[in-house]
Each structure stands twice: as C-alpha cells, then as structure tokens.
C-alpha cells in the first residue's frame, strides 16, 4: 500500500454512484462487496445474522453466512481493516469517512438550529446533491433513501426560513426552490417562496406564486392550499381568494356526492 493510502483516511461515497477511495486511489469492488460495505457504512455495527439475512434473503442461513464470509475475505486489506469483527457483530472502522453521515449531521444541525446564527455559506450544495445509490432497488436502500430525502426537505425548509429572517432573501429563495424541485407539491417550500417575495415587498409576485400553486394543487390532488398559506397574503387578497377556495371545495364535494 502506498504512503498516500496509509496517511489519508478511507472515504466511502454513497451519494450518487458507489465509490470507495483509499488515499488517492479508487478501489473497484465486486457487487456483493459494494452492497456489504454500503450497508455497513450506513449502519456502523451489524450482527452477522442480520447482515447475511439482509444481503442474501433468498437463500438458506448457512448459504448466506458462507456468502458473507467470502465477501468479507474479498474486501481490500489495509491497516486498519475496513470491517472489524467483534464477536458475532461486524463494525466499520472509525477511520472510514462516509458522505451520508456528513449530510445527516449537516441537515440535523440546520433543522435543530445548532449552527451559527448566520450561515456564511449556506450548505445548499450538500442539501441538494445526489440521492443515495441511485439505481439500487433493494428494500434497505429504498428505506434509507427516503429517510435522507425527507431530512433534506426539512433542512431546506428550515434553511429557507432562517435565511429569509436574516434578510438574505435571494439565498432563502434558492433553498425554497430546491425544495420545490425535489417535491413540487410540498406546501412548506411554496410558503417560503411567498414569504421571500413578501419580505422584498413584491406582493404581486407573492400572489402570482400562491395562485400558481393553488391551481397545481387542485389539478393534482383536488384540494386547496391550507388556511395558513392563505393568511400569509395581505388581508384583502386573502379574502378574495378564500371564497374561490371554498367554491372549489364545495364543487368537489358535490361531484363526489353525485357520482
């Protein structure tokens, strides 16, 4: 192993395509090696039984454990080893840097408001990056991918609101639009966009966006925006839109009744 590989901590990238980096080199792994390291990288510590049963659910326990032993043996050798045995459990070496954990810590800091009172550089790039292992369709990946998606959306909502409160409306709107791109029907992201327009005094922009979202929501789901959203608009405008929302709701009820 080269000196660079010994000095630099190993890096496991799971956002986007799987990549294991040891020093300056990218290490190629077989498919089972990727699956094993991805699962371990996400969980940290797993029993052999759970790991074998999750990665090889269609075979007998004996066969699954055999596949696990073979896959572990094929992992790159190094010091410290990537996977450490501890009784019937396997542990990821603390030296391994996993990008998912960086994303999780950053998003939780934003959501919990544990960061500095003002972001010198909002973590938009990280919060709007690639999904977890796109193209992988195993159940444990799908569950973790959805968890990260929801965490990112909540972090973008919180970040947008925080930036708008700080008077950094352009950045706040960027965070809000990132949430809309990720989930077009997410009302909280649209509320942040309207809030940014109102903070800048652009009432016509705020009303235009609200109306566009109202039409989209009715077209896709047959419902109206929440009363909380409508109350964000100036009083006379919200009064003007409220009867229209009630009429739409009444019409939908009548249609459902006479079907």
Automatic annotation (TrEMBL):
It comes from Streptomyces griseoloalbus. Pfam families: BTAD. GO terms for biological process: phosphorelay signal transduction system. Gene3D superfamilies: Tetratricopeptide repeat domain, Winged helix-like DNA-binding domain superfamily/Winged helix DNA-binding domain. This is DNA-binding SARP family transcriptional activator. The keyword DNA-binding applies. The keyword Kinase does not apply. Keywords: DNA-binding, Two-component regulatory system. The lineage of its organism: Bacteria, Bacillati, Actinomycetota, Actinomycetes, Kitasatosporales. GO terms for molecular function: DNA binding. InterPro entries: AfsR-DnrI-RedD_regulator, BTAD, TPR-like_helical_dom_sf, WH-like_DNA-bd_sf. Residues 98-237 form the Bacterial transcriptional activator domain.
């Amino acid at each position: 192993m080269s000196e660079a590989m010994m000095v630099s901590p190993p890096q496991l990238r799971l956002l986007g395509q799987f990549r294991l980096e040891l020093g300056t080199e990218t290490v190629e792994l077989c498919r089972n090696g990727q699956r094993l390291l991805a699962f371990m990288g996400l969980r940290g510590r797993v029993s052999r039984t759970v790991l074998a049963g999750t990665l090889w659910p269609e075979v007998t326990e004996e066969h699954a454990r055999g596949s696990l032993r073979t896959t572990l043996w094929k992992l790159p050798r190094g010091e410290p080893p990537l996977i450490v045995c501890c009784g019937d459990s396997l542990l990821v070496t603390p030296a391994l840097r996993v990008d998912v954990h960086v994303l999780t810590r950053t998003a939780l800091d934003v959501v919990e408001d544990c960061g500095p009172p003002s972001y010198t550089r909002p973590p938009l790039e990280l919060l709007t990056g690639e999904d977890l292992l796109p193209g992988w369709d195993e159940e444990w990946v799908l569950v973790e991918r959805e968890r990260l998606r929801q965490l990112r959306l909540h972090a973008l909502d919180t970040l947008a609101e925080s930036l708008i409160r700080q008077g950094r409306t352009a950045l706040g709107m960027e965070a809000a639009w990132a949430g809309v791109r990720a989930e077009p029907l997410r009302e909280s992201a649209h509320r942040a966009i309207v809030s940014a327009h109102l903070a800048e005094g652009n009432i016509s922009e705020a009303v235009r966006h609200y109306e566009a979202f109202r039409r989209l929501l009715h077209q896709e789901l047959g419902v109206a925006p929440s009363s909380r959203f409508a109350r964000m608009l100036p009083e006379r405008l919200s009064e003007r839109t409220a009867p229209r929302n009630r009429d739409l709701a009444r019409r939908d009820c009548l249609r459902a009744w006479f079907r």
